[in-house]
Design brief:
By secondary structure, this protein is an alpha+beta fold. It has helices spanning 19-23, 28-37, 92-97, 118-127, 129-154; strands spanning 7-9, 12-14, 17-18, 39-43, 48-52, 58-64, 67-72, 79-83, 88-90, 103-107, 111-117. It has a single domain (7-154), classed as Jelly Rolls. Helix content is 37%, strand content 33%. β1 (7-9) and β2 (12-14) form a beta hairpin. α4 (118-127) crosses α5 (129-154).
């Protein structure tokens, strides 16, 4: 089990990407584009929400309930599990980094997710300056924090 304050994604250590941080206060044009892609699903406890070994097909955002994320490292020799935080975006980092390894999302209780088709969401990020900038900002802050933590631990 990984402590919830540090997440391990292959060799990349970071915090979950929050839907609020990425999608807050968007211009109307951006909201409309996201609304056309958005779907809602409800999953009962114990059900697998996703179980994909290949390129992610769907981006998930947990709206309510409890769910668990389990994934293997890039060598496929260790399995990590942690609870998904509310409003966390699942699958985005893997989509952007084309990360290897297996990832599975399982509902621990009745859950509601907002989903987006991964390829369309990725295209939106590539062509939308505001969303692209916010994602870069989130990831660069994460990398900077991880570098500082790593440097402090070395000395």
């Amino acid at each position: 089990m990984i402590p919830n304050d540090r997440k391990i994604y292959g060799r990349f250590v970071g915090q979950p990407i929050s839907a609020h941080d990425l999608l807050f206060d968007l211009p109307v044009k951006n909201k409309r584009r996201l609304r056309t892609l958005r779907r809602e699903i409800e999953v009962c406890g114990g059900e697998a929400v996703s179980d994909r070994d290949d390129f992610p097909e769907t981006i998930y955002i947990l709206q309510s309930g409890k769910a668990e994320l389990s994934f293997t490292n890039q060598l496929n020799d260790k399995v990590y599990r942690r609870e998904i935080e509310k409003e966390e975006i699942i699958g985005l980092r893997r989509l952007i980094l084309h990360a290897a390894g297996q990832k599975k999302v399982t509902a621990l209780s009745r859950c509601q997710f907002v989903t987006f088709p991964a390829r369309e969401f990725y295209e939106l990020l590539q062509h939308d300056a505001i969303l692209g900038y916010r994602l870069l900002e989130i990831l660069s802050l994460e990398i900077t924090k991880n570098y500082r933590d790593f440097a402090a631990a070395r000395f």
